[in-house]
Amino acid sequence: VLVAIAGGVGAARLLAGLVRAMDPAGIMAVVNTGDDMTLHGLHISPDIDTITYTLAGRSNPATGWGLAGDTFSAMAELADLGGQAWFGLGDRDLATHLYRTQRLAEGASLSAVTAELAARRGVALRVVPMSDDPVRTRLSLDPAGVPATGFPGIADPDDVAFQDYFVRLRHGVPVRAVRFDGAERSRPAPGVLEAIEAADEIVVCPSNPLVSIGPVLAVPGIADALARRRPDVVAVSPIVAGQALKGPADRLLRELGHESSVLGVARLYAPWAGSLVVDVADAALAPAVEEVGLHCIVVDTVMSSPGRSLELARRLLGARR
Amino acid sequence: VLVAIAGGVGAARLLAGLVRAMDPAGIMAVVNTGDDMTLHGLHISPDIDTITYTLAGRSNPATGWGLAGDTFSAMAELADLGGQAWFGLGDRDLATHLYRTQRLAEGASLSAVTAELAARRGVALRVVPMSDDPVRTRLSLDPAGVPATGFPGIADPDDVAFQDYFVRLRHGVPVRAVRFDGAERSRPAPGVLEAIEAADEIVVCPSNPLVSIGPVLAVPGIADALARRRPDVVAVSPIVAGQALKGPADRLLRELGHESSVLGVARLYAPWAGSLVVDVADAALAPAVEEVGLHCIVVDTVMSSPGRSLELARRLLGARR
Q: H/E element holding A203?
């Protein structure tokens, strides 16, 4: 049994390799829900959907979000109405959010709804939200990067919802703090702690350490459970040659006082990860990673094709010390 | 200035004639919201949308609901997911509900959102919900018409939401009672009572007396305001030759102890309507209507084309005693 701590696109690619490298029924993906939001009254879970769509073979490779071949009639009409059309929701993608919102209103838990949606879409691995309780990633922007007039649609630059930062502002504004509202009162979703305890191996996907893996660790109990399994926790660095392959992980690391390198990632993960997988481009930093106390595995980590995802997955299986 | 008390399709057709017969800016449509519901987390206002779409020239004449030429990708996907796809929402139609739900969540009133949507769609008359407060039409089914196993998706046949009756059960089940949950605590939307008081004429559209006009009358203050203007209240019978042109009005009248005829309508409306417009098919009943105490106007009321709607509208203007 393998547990994967997961964010969005990078995690989805690795999971797509893992399901080919082992029995998918033995995989539990514990997914960040700090990016979740309520918009138009709908509960939207971007990372869960990215993973489910990818594993169902229906993700849009051009965007990293949404369904391949989807249409955007609802959004076009919403834009005509002057509504909030900044967060792109395809017509078929909308069905996911309609389904989830209705089921939650009926009293189902987010983990139950997530399992239903994954099953309906033929996803064989277990997709589990980090928590059934609301945890919301919020950011304080660096005042130096905020124009005197503020940003349209952003009421308080010191308290910005994640998708406002990520989509509205296209993560192009410096950040000075990240927090996870509701985390201290949240509980891990049913089965998560038990799975971490019983797993043969725990993989931390190449997702943003601060805003994808960070919220999962902020759910009380999960970081401790990982620390108890430290020798079996293998993390994949999302930073390659100092840069994020996608998204703002490199800038966020620097802005929040970390080093944007595999070494910065190693220092963040050292308390609970036994191994760090770094790309061949970072081979020279392997000794420094080992000095931080992590076993350093140097392989090709850039999953530019399904074949490369499978190869990385195979290297991870049994990679623990 | 003209006030029109309105349900859905029949009202929309008459309003489409009225806006051609007079200055649309002088018309306020006070619209039934007893059919409103929350589904998929979205606030859906079927009668308001039917009227707005029709007046915007975008209604689907084949169905009476939704937008002409709309697509149904979201619903197709929702059906694949096993979700609640029984209430058809087109992709562009969805934008209306997304917009409304988001604005309500932001604190806007239903009347403010309704005005925004009407303005954005270029509708010149004032479309006003009967109330900004939630009023929900609920029905008790006649046990004789309910199979021993009940109906799928209907938890309690004694407490059925309007759209469950109207759409899920295709209004094919006898009803023994109708009530308007929340009506006693509701207030008329801003401006409604003032408009009734000041109007030159008040038209009651050919809508279902019990479940379209009934909820409007159940909002405290509206029936009294109409009664004070009784000589200027002109109602159009939705019953022609004993039958409803559309929907279950004829059966509901019988099931709830009324006569399914213009006479049944006259008796229901007599406390607050001065005139009843009946179709030429019911000319023989005009004396009986007059006996109930209403001035009876016999014209062609079947709005089978825009020209017929305009003709009826012209006959109504100045038709009061």
A: strand A201-204
Q: Are strands A2-6 and A201-204 parallel, antiparallel or unpaired?
A: parallel
A239 to A191, A250, A298: CA distances (angstroms): 30, 7, 13
CA angle B295, B296, B302 (to 5 degrees): 145
Pairwise CB contact (< 8 Å): B74 & A83: no
pLDDT digits (tens, 9 = 90+) for B96-132: 999 999 999 999 999 999 999 999 999 999 999 999 9
- By Cβ distance, the residue of B74, B83, B116 closest to A102 is B83
Closest Cα in chain A to B78: A95
The whole-model pTM stands at 0.94
Nearest to B95 among A81, A102, A120 (CB): A81
User: What residues form DSSP beta bridges with B4?
Assistant: B29, B203
Of the candidates B39, B75, B98, the beta carbon closest to that of A102 is on B39
Q: What integer is the mean pLDDT of B150-173?
A: 92
Distance from CA of B96 to the nearest CA of A (A): 7
Q: Are B178 and B214 a contacting pair, CB within 8 Å? A: yes
In chain A, residues with a C-beta closer than 8 Å to the C-beta of B70 are 73
Distance CA B31, CA B52 (A): 11
In A, minimum Cα distance to B42 occurs at A41
Q: Please indicate whether, in this complex, the C-beta atoms of A77 and B71 are within 8 angstroms of each other.
A: no
SS3 A71: coil
CA distance B245 to B7: 14
Report yes or no: A153 at the B interface, CB cutoff 8 Å: no
- The pair of structure tokens assigned to A227 is 């620390």
Tell me if B83 and A98 make a contact (CB, 8 A cut-off): yes
Residue B238 in tokens:
């939705």
Match 């002409």 to its residue by tokens: B68
Distance separating alpha carbons of residues B268 and B262, to the nearest angstrom: 10
Residue recorded with tokens 């200027």: B232
Across the range A132-157, mean pLDDT stands at 93
Is A60 within 8 Å of A66 (Cβ atoms)?
yes
Strands A239-240 and A37-39: unpaired
CA nearest neighbour of B221 among B200, B190, B253, B267: B190
Q: Residue A307 and residue A318: Cα distance in Å, rounded?
A: 19
**Sign, CA torsion B53/B112/A169/A150:** positive
The complex scores an ipTM of 0.92
